[in-house]
Amino acid sequence: MPRPKTQTDESVLDAALMLMQTSGPDGLTFASLASATGLSAATLVQRFGNKTVLKSAALHQAWDRLDEATATTAERLPQTPGAAIDLLIALSGDYGDIETYAEGLLLLREDLRDPALRQRGTAWKTALTGHLDACFTNTPDTPPNIGELLATHWQGALLWWSFDPQHPVEAYLRDSLTAYLALLIRT
Fold first, then answer.
1. Which of 10, 111, 160, 175 is placed for a possible disulfide with 117 were both Cys, Cβ 3.0 to 4.6 Å?
2. Is the dihedral of CA 49, 27, 125, 86 positive or negative?
3. According to the UniProt record, which residues make up the DNA-binding region (predicted)?
4. Cβ within 8 Å of residue 94, ≥6 positions away
5. Which residues contact 78 (CB under 8 A, 6 or more apart)?
6. Structurally, what CATH architecture does the domain formed by 59-184 represent?
7. pLDDT tens per residue, range 169-179
């Protein structure tokens, strides 16, 4: 009979993701994860097989959480243009400071290298832009793809903020998204 797990796969994958966020994807090893979780490296190899499978599982779990955060945040906000901005700012909460944002780009690199993770990104884009589009259903004279336009500007604004992070990311994004939205829905 197999021994009971002292830590769930979910908690182990959380630790793996944390290691990748702080040390980059190459910083994730079975030895470093063993140290972080208190499990033996052999136990971790037995559970996940190899580093590629481990990394992929951790990144899929991160996508699961982003999907959930997007859906639950969108559900609790009203469907208004201001709420579209609030949704994007809420989804930016994990970026924090410039170091956290920069490490997140290393994780994005891993997503872009893996076809299954790229598909997760595509699916998230569809869900996010759908939520954003819904915020403009009662706003006349909006472009039909306003959700995608707003999400694209959001990602660009994050990048521009990262070059000169003098202001908190939330304040920078609110100002940038508000100005952009005023251009899009101006009549």
1. 111
2. positive
3. 29-48
4. 100, 104
5. none
6. Orthogonal Bundle (1.10)
7. 999 999 999 99
CA distances from 68 to 99, 132, 174 (A): 25, 15, 23
173 token code pair: 């994004």
Instruction: Give CA–CA dist 57/64, Å, rounded.
Output: 10
What is the mean predicted confidence (pLDDT) over 160-186? Answer: 92
Summarize the confidence of residues 115-133 as an average pLDDT.
97
Residue 180 tokens read as: 């952009």
**Using CA atoms, how far apart are residues 13 and 177, in angstroms rounded to an integer?**
34
Where helices occur in the chain by DSSP H, the ranges are 9-23, 30-37, 41-48, 51-76, 81-91, 98-113, 115-134, 146-163, 169-184
CA 156 to chain centre: 15
Rounded to whole angstroms, what are the CA distances from 11 to 4, 120, 151, 175? 15, 21, 31, 37
What is the DSSP-derived secondary structure letter of residue 144? T
Burial of 6 (C-beta count, 10 Å sphere; 0-12/13-18/19+): exposed
Residue 15 in contact with residue 102, Cβ under 8 Å? no
- pLDDT tier at 96, thresholds 50, 70, 90: low
